Amino acid sequence: MNLSIYGCSSSKESLQSPVNIYVSSRIKNNDTIIVIANKINNNYAIELFKTRSLIPVTANTLENSILLEDPKFNEKYWSVMAKKYHNDKTNEIWLKNDFWNQNDFKNVKIKFIKEVDFLKPWIYDEYMTEKKAEVIVFAFSNPIFYENGGYAIFAKSETTTKKQFNEPTCIVIMKMENKKWKFVQEINDGNYY
User: Fold this and answer.
1) What would the pLDDT profile of 20-38 be if each residue is shown by its tens digit?
2) Which of 59, 82, 103, 144 is 20 to 30 A (C-alpha) from 3?
3) Are 160 and 39 in contact, with CB atoms under 8 Å apart?
């Protein structure tokens, strides 16, 4: 069984990762969440950012499926980002040797579960009975930086212990303003599950 639970209430101001800021903004301090320990491959975020940036807007365009005006897609910046962050070792969605841990997050109670264990029977037994409350489950890629570090982009999967659908479905875009990361937009992959 590959399960770890951690709680942290220290005030480590050095934890300013865009992923950490995003999670902290979504979760109440007393809530426990699950994070898939395996990181999502950066290739997903790189490709989805470009693909969703180049889609023409029509009356049939799905909300949150295209890039807004901030940031604007720029082939030069995208190429720099793709060259720096593209994973040449694997195209698998889930990285087998790169994991999130409690040091990556601040002020959040987190259970870490490996991706291969998420759909195992013990997860069902622990979380899927009617008496148990749903727990939010996140998975993330490492943040990748666009336009000279002015924007951070990362892939995200969000589900619950009762749904247990666990594939990345969107990217999150954050912008650096006044030395702090601010949420800009989530862009989904255009599929609804």
Assistant:
1) 999 988 887 778 899 999 9
2) 144
3) no
**Secondary structure (3-state) at 159:** strand
Output the DSSP codes for 160-171. Answer: ETTT---S--EE
Enumerate residues 6+ apart whose C-beta is below 8 A from 101. 4, 37, 112
The reported pTM is 0.83
Backbone angles phi, psi at 8, to 5 degrees: -145, 130
CA distances in angstroms from 26 to 21, 31, 68, 137, 159, listed in the order given: 9, 10, 22, 12, 13
Burial of 107 (0-12, 13-18, 19+ CB in 10 A): middle
H and E: helices and strands count for the chain: 4, 10
